[in-house]
Amino acid sequence: MAAIQSFPHLWLLSDARNDGVLERALHRLQRGSGFIYRHYHLPPVERVARFRSLARIARARGHVVVLADSALTAREWGADGIYGAPLSLAPRRDDLLRLATAHSMAEIAQARRVGAHAVLLSPAFATRSHPGAPSLGPVRWRLLAAHSGMPVIALGGMNRRNAHRLQWPHWAAIDGLS
Question: Structural domain boundaries of the chain?
Answer without folding.
Answer: 10-173
